[in-house]
């Protein structure tokens, strides 16, 4: 059964999928440095050779694009023969004993639309350091996907065998609590889009996971969230995060944005994966990030990748890399949602493919927001009589709902040492003639000369990268003020509530 091209993520780089179209078994590549009997391609840093295969004696690598130049390096001790493929992955070894017809040569890469993964294999490290993870991890302390074996067409006659078998092996030496089990195994006709990673395949028919339907399990039965916001003031919640590995809530890195941050120090996998989101209208992914509060990374391959998946985490595509030698201080970061990720049922992942072990090359993240709309709302009103509405407020650091200064429904700041109190609206579309009106009380029943830090009213037109006072300070002799006199939008202590009404004009008005 052929799959729709829309079902799979393919690389935009032509070099990732180029194989020889000449049927001759002795055709060599322009990139080859060896005789016709052995072909070995030397690839650019973002193209990793995966599962080299045999073809009538010469070896023809099948390649795929990968965001990290070293995250799938094979040991120099590994070897290939027509019927044995080995991956040497420290601290143990995974072996695949396959007959020659299991792997076949094709002009398509493993990420091509017509190639369907079969029986993906996962393992857990036996290393004790892998179990020193936080209780907040939703999955086992470490789960590493190993590239699935794939098959597209019956192999040529020179590759066929009469029998093929598979096996799952956990090397001796594991602890009793590290045992494992299989729940479902299927080998047979492929299903549409491999059930989009959200169902199990059985004789070409998808049996969808809870909450999903359709022929390929690609249709959510309930609307998916269009926004994700988490300041990690408490443990990560399962309704927001599909996986949290190698991390825990901590202030060990200091204050990144406010309060706690999610700190990744685990000895094995370090990743953070969202649940499925509806990102058809999403614009940006923003967060505060820091490397190396305990031990800074020192290797090129120790960066953190931001990826997206449109098929339940079966395949991932890189959005951007956070380089290992940047972000040594808490840094606010905004990443645009790529066009290919603007779909319904998308997951976002932060993943560190390589590090040097427990607490080495650690990183922390705080105040994640995935949101934005192509057409921003033009109005908003909120009396704070119920929960904070995330579609109105992107950020409420150190703020809470409740009574204040005689009013039952307010949102007020909770003072924390060396931390800001911040309340940030969603992005709005501002028209000429609009006003901003609000009631504010600073201090409540205190004199105007009290030593209380003022509240600053600012605006941003670049997704929060830079901020400016809504009302600039102007004196009569300032040339840019045209003789007007205004005070900056700062609000000092007062003995009562006061209402402010500001006319929105100039740079704050949307284009």
From TrEMBL:
InterPro entries: Reelin, Reelin_subrepeat-B
A GO molecular function held by the record: serine-type peptidase activity
Similarity field: Belongs to the reelin family.
Name by which UniProt lists this protein: Reelin
PANTHER family tied to this protein: REELIN (PTHR11841)
Subcellular location field: Secreted, Extracellular space, Extracellular matrix
Listed Low complexity bias regions: 1-21
Region Disordered, residue ranges: 1-23
Keyword Calcium set for record: yes
Quaternary structure note: Oligomer of disulfide-linked homodimers.
Biological processes annotated in GO: cell adhesion; central nervous system development; neuron migration; proteolysis
Purpose: Extracellular matrix serine protease secreted by pioneer neurons that plays a role in layering of neurons in the cerebral cortex and cerebellum by coordinating cell positioning during neurodevelopment. Regulates microtubule function in neurons and neuronal migration. Binding to the extracellular domains of lipoprotein receptors VLDLR and LRP8/APOER2 induces tyrosine phosphorylation of DAB1 and modulation of TAU phosphorylation. Affects migration of sympathetic preganglionic neurons in the spinal cord, where it seems to act as a barrier to neuronal migration.
Keyword annotations: Calcium, Cell adhesion, Developmental protein, Extracellular matrix, Hydrolase, Metal-binding, Protease, Secreted, Serine protease, Zinc
């Amino acid at each position: 059964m052929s799959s729709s091209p829309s079902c799979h993520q393919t690389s935009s780089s032509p070099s990732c999928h180029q194989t020889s179209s000449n049927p001759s078994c002795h055709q060599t590549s322009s990139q080859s440095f060896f005789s016709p009997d052995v072909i070995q391609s030397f690839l650019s840093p973002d193209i990793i050779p995966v599962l080299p295969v045999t073809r009538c004696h010469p070896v023809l690598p099948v390649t795929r694009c990968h965001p990290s130049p070293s995250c799938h390096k094979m040991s120099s001790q590994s070897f290939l023969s027509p019927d044995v493929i080995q991956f040497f992955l420290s601290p143990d070894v995974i072996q695949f004993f396959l007959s020659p017809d299991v792997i076949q040569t094709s002009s398509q890469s493993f990420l091509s639309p017509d190639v369907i993964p079969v029986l993906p294999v996962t393992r857990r490290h036996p290393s004790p350091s892998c179990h020193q993870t936080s209780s907040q991890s939703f999955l086992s302390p470490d789960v590493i996907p190993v590239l699935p074996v794939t098959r597209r067409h019956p192999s040529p006659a020179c590759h066929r065998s009469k029998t093929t078998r598979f096996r799952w092996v956990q090397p001796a030496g594991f602890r009793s609590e590290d045992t494992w089990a299989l729940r479902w195994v299927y080998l047979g006709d492929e299903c549409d889009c491999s059930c989009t990673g959200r169902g199990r395949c059985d004789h070409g028919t998808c049996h969808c996971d809870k909450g999903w339907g359709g022929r390929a399990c690609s249709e959510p039965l309930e609307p998916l969230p269009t926004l994700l916001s988490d300041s990690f003031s408490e443990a990560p919640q399962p309704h927001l995060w599909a996986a949290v590995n190698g991390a825990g809530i901590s202030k060990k890195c200091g204050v990144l944005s406010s309060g706690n941050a999610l700190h990744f120090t685990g000895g094995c996998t370090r990743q953070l994966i969202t649940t499925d989101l509806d990102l058809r209208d999403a614009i940006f992914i923003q967060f505060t990030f820091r490397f190396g509060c305990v031990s800074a990374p020192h290797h090129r391959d120790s960066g953190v990748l931001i990826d997206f998946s449109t098929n339940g985490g079966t395949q991932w595509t890189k959005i951007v890399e956070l380089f290992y030698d940047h972000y040594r201080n808490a840094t606010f970061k905004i990443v645009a949602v790529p066009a290919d990720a603007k779909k319904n049922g998308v997951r976002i992942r932060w993943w560190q493919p390589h590090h040097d072990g427990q607490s080495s090359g650690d990183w922390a993240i705080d105040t994640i927001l995935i949101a934005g709309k192509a057409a921003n709302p033009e109005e908003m009103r909120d009396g704070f009589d119920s929960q904070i509405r995330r579609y109105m407020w992107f950020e409420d650091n150190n703020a809470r709902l409740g009574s204040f200064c005689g009013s039952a429904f307010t949102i007020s700041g909770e003072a924390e040492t060396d931390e800001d109190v911040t309340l940030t609206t969603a992005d709005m579309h501002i028209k000429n003639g609009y006003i901003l009106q609000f009631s504010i009380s600073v201090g409540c029943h205190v004199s105007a000369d009290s030593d209380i830090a003022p509240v600053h009213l600012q605006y941003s037109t670049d997704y929060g990268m830079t901020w400016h006072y809504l009302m600039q300070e102007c004196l009569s002799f300032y040339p840019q003020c045209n003789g007007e006199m205004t005070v900056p939008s700062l609000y000092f202590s007062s003995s009562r509530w006061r209402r402010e009404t500001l006319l929105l004009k100039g740079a704050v008005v949307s284009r």
